[in-house]
Amino acid sequence: MVHALGVVPGGVTGPPAEGFEVGYIDLGGSEYRRPLSDVWATRFEDVVPVREFKSYKGQRHLPGLWWSSTAGGHIGYESWLERDHVMLLDFDPTVVGVSSQPFWLFWASDGGKGISHAPDYFARRDDGTAVVIDCRPANRRGPRDWVKFEATRAACDQVGWEFRLVGDPDEIVVRNVRWLAGYRTPRHRVEPVASVLREVFAEPLPLMDGAAAVGDPIAVLPVLFHLLWSHELVVDVSVPLHAASLVSSGVVR
Q1: For residue 35, which of 103, 102, 97, 98 has the smallest C-alpha distance?
Q2: Is residue 120 within 8 Å of 145, Cβ to Cβ?
Q3: Predicted structure pTM score
């Protein structure tokens, strides 16, 4: 179902007379279009995507769904770049909610022409603050794109949201987090192994040494990787993950 959001309750057809308007769809399927100043407190981490994630033969991008341990459900992406960034949001311990294609932002150009843009992601942090994210490789940001990105930044500034325009993330971080993401589901939290691992790594130890101290690594490692994903144990993901990587509780003693 395509949601054009041209005419919705409380909204108008065409560009707003002034400032920014936001069009969004709540979980019940109701569509709204309101001035940005009226909706800044809306839980956009809990809305329905305003655009479809289309798949067709010969397309350049590879859309799909990412199962988010943060959201407890699937979040759409339109490219592998977006997939990597929604994965990193899922891994971020400060993020408590994420949605994809959360709203349409409407405004008028200097010449009065209507312009719209749907950011890629909206994320809520544990302190209540919000971040709006657009994903675009640096070499694919044309003049029209910059107009939309800068307008989105200006809109976010008005309501106290952070705006991020992101490109290719660090390759090592992505590879490490992608590995840990394979163990993000709750089925890998096996007791009493998880509790024993937290005890063993109360002081920093090499990854494989600590796993072997708990039991058969074949059984223990999936639980360990799950604890690293959930940040109950920590490891430096900015360098390649290996058997000697130091794992700890992350608690300052």
Answers
A1: 103
A2: no
A3: 0.89
